[in-house]
Amino acid sequence: MIFAIEEINNNTDLLPGIKLGYQIYDSCALVPVAVHVAFQFLNSFDPVFSTGNNCSQSGMVMAVVGDSGSTPSISISRLISPFNIPQVSHFATCACLSDKQQYPNFFRTIPSDQFQAESLAKLVKHFGWTWIGAVRSDSDYGNNGMASFLQAAQKEGICVEYSVSFYRTDPQSRIQKVADVIRRSKALVVVAFASFGDMKILLEELSRAATVDEKVCDGNEDIQNLQSQYTDTSQLRITNMVYKAVYAIAHAIHNAVCHGKNVTTQCDKLTKLEPKQVLTELKKVNFSQNGYDVSFNANGDPVAIYELVNWQKHESGITEIVTVGLYDASLPVGKEFRINRNINWMEDSTKVPVSVCTDSCPPGTRKVLQKGKPICCYDCILCPEGEINNITDSADCLPCHKEFWPNSKRDTCIPKPIEFLSFQDILGIILATFSVLGALLAIITAGVFFYHRTSPIVRANNSELSFLLLISLTLCFLCSLTFIGAPSEWSCMLRHTAFGITFVLCISCVLGKTIVVLMAFKATLPGSNVIKWFGPPQQRMTVMCFTFIQILICTIWLVVSPPFAIKNLTTYKEKIILECALGSPVGFWVVLGYIGILAAFCFVLAVLARKLPDNFNEAKLITFSMLIFCAVWITFIPAYVSSPGKFTVVVEIFAILASSFGLMLCIFAPKCFIILFKPEKNTKKYLMSKNQS
After folding, report:
1. What are the C-alpha distances in Å from 295 to residues 220, 331, 656, 664?
2. 601 three-class SS
3. CATH architecture of 426-692
4. For the domain bounded by 2-210+236-305, which CATH number is listed?
5. Per the count of CB atoms within 10 A, which of 11, 99, 267, 327 is most buried?
6. pLDDT tens digits, residue range 63-80?
7. What is the pTM of this model?
8. 557 Cβ contact partners less than 8 Å away, ≥ 6 residues apart
């Protein structure tokens, strides 16, 4: 302060011809002493300039620089503010002093704790620390500063594990208790709002250094080699605050008593200057000194600019304070911090320490708060089925689109696999193989029958209907292939109509053969001419009529509400089933029901004809084949309804193949066996032997 005043007194531009006087008091950081000093300021002296060069005469105090602490500054301000004496502190940072209702005369060149608290919270957030401890001096500075910090930390989503206070005059047990709280804590970062003296005592306790072992000054030390905070001139931050405070007051007085600029500046030494005038002008000051801008806002606070310093230990063992960055509150949000050097952390590590209650929840999980604990303590729960999260530490998971499904990590949605019975599936290959084999078997059987078409066994069993039945069975086997492959609009319509029509054609042929057997034996009765009314033309007409009815049903179904391809998203959550919707379920069940009626009618007639004599009587074979046919399709209904996804198609193909093979083997296998392996039975004599007996 003395240096600044002497520099001003020797300055020809600032207060030319006027010299500033001063009185320096030591408050000893104690409120009673500070109050005693304040009362001395208030002694009544004439507010005039001394006309001589001797400033030893005390005049009225125009302004006060100080105090260093917030609590003494509060006491001083309350005493001198009624007299409008301005007070400029260089180190009192309590945010409460920004309240102009209570402290209208208070200014400071150091930023308010409110800015410090906000910048500290942003600094903690910048390094990713969410779980910290807090210690403070049990004073106005510590309590108010920490209260502001806790509010700012809460806004930044930072949790405080503990917040403890102490004072340097507290018993050793109290200091030790605070140190034990820090040692037991899970937090690796501690934010402190404490004075130098308080923090020194706490650090000594934490390092278990005994203060009694410190060397006490005895007056014989060499000041050039003495290492202390008072002899260290490398860190002049606080000194610079005093320097700016003195210059601010000088500029205020200059603006009150001087007029003109530079060379033409004239100051009225005879003016009666009041402290209130200095107070008014102090609110307006705005100047630069040695590269530092000095001004005050409406609350008497300067622009908040902080240096970010780091204790760094060199190889020589010396620890020095190194500036590693800057915080400027005047910069845009998010750009306040500028860190331009590496920071040394614990044990000279350059890696930022991690201080969190719970490790970050990775993508694919969500945060679930732990009951009774702060928001920074949570469990990481895997996203629910069908939902994902690709953000770290997210509290929510988002559902995938209906045609997408989460991957195994549940951090991204991938297209659901599309499933249908394809020719590449093992099931598809097996069913297609049996379908082709069945068709080949029917064709070979037709070839055998055609080759032996003049033999008694072929002629006795209505060769025309037999060939038509073999053709229809070939189509039945082949129509099952339409159920394999990706469903499309045309394949869906084809598979159901082809199935319905070919099976009706097949059953119609079997029905015709059954009726022929019955009519043939009726015709052997005396006076009966029934066979004339059911000859080959009538047989063909019967098959055509039954088949035409099914064609008509299928046509109406296709016109009104045909089957169509759909993506089934409900049966399985994790995949899409590509299948054919029935369009009109009524149409499907009418087609199936019509086949069932014909099969039941054929079965009844076959049962009636099963005991008629004849070695080549087909009624027994038809009865057994219809029994298999009906059993297959009766069990098909519940299996079809309950089978999920592509297995619905598998059940339908299986029913088609099983019933087709049943008809094929039951009706034609015995005849082929006789034709190929028992030719002695393929004679008219054997045919008539049972009747003769």
Report:
1. 44, 17, 95, 106
2. helix
3. Up-down Bundle (1.20)
4. 3.40.50.2300
5. 327
6. 999 898 888 999 999 999
7. 0.59
8. 496, 497, 583, 584, 587, 588, 590, 591
